[in-house]
Amino acid sequence: MVFTTWSADELLSFFMVLVRVSTLLILFPMFGDKAVPATVKIFLSVCFSAILFPILRSNGVIDVQAAHQWSSTTTQLLMTLFSEILMGLAIGFASQLVFQAVHVAGDFISQLMGLSMATSYDPHFESQAMMVSQLLGALAMLTFLSLDGHHVLFRAIVESFRLVPQGHFVGSEAFKDSIINLTGNTLKFGVQLAAPMAACMMLVNIVYGILSKALPQLNILTLSMASSLAIGCVVMLVTYPSLQSGISSLVTGYFDDLKQFMVVYGGK
């Protein structure tokens, strides 16, 4: 690939591909992790764009001649640039939600087990995170890789250029509704993953209430702190297969959700 022999339209088309790919990689799981240095992200963006651009061009997904239209004026060029950035941010945000659902479940489980104060620094989010959330996050990432989730990411990038061509964006009411539904599903999936623990701990709390009435001299507060943690660990061991199955189902439907989101984004 020799950039010096390219025309202005080819350079502009490649630049827009680089803008979209780099924005996506910044937010994509694993690649956009805050623990990954910025120089590595830039290098991956440039390399992937350089590989992807000739393929998309040869397949007719990218029309270089169309760059002359959306770059004819400064306003149109800036609008196209804004559209590519917004495209990357929207899909990157949607791709993060599957892992946010796991972290929501981890936070719920930590609070139910009495581990809400047991936090440590998480370099992936650069903030304090609960221990169970970090454990489930690691499990989700391993499941993501075992199911070739990184291949799904690359397919999503390619599909984004086919479903939403350069310089094309149709904002609609359906796009706003799609964002709201995806965010709502994040909370729903998080609650579903934490449901077995919530049900068991509710029964445990009922037992605590009965014991406090039957034996008023018993210090239920002190007893519950240790027993809730022990019972919670046992429940996590017993429900681990179903928990892993739930995370696997989330990752399996990951590409279909992203594709549907891109369809709504492009107004198709």
What does this structure look like?
The two termini are about 35 Å apart. The protein has about 270 residues and is mostly helical. The radius of gyration is 24 Å and the shape is elongated. It has helices spanning about 10-25, 40-60, 65-70, 75-115, 130-145, 150-165, 175-215, 220-240, 240-250, 255-265; strands spanning about 120, 125-130. Strand 1 (about 120) and strand 2 form a beta hairpin. Helix 1 runs parallel beside helix 4 (about 75-115), helix 4 packs across helix 5 (about 130-145) and helix 4 runs antiparallel to helix 10 (about 255-265). The chain has one domain (about 5-265).
Q: Could you name the key traits of this structure?
A:
single chain, 268 residues, mainly alpha, two-stranded antiparallel ribbon, 10 helices, 75% helix, elongated
Query: How do the strands of the widest beta sheet line up side by side?
Result: 1-2
Question: What structural class do the secondary elements suggest?
Answer: mainly alpha
Shape estimate = elongated
Helix tally? 10
Give the helices and strands as they follow along the chain: HHHHEEHHHHHH
Largest sheet: 2 strands, antiparallel
Number of domains in the coordinates? 1
The low-confidence runs, each spanning 5 or more residues with pLDDT under 50, are none
Overall mean pLDDT: 78
Radius of gyration: 24 Å
The percent range for strand residues is under 5%
Number of strands: 2
* Euclidean distance between termini CA atoms: 33 Å
- Helical content, roughly? over 70%
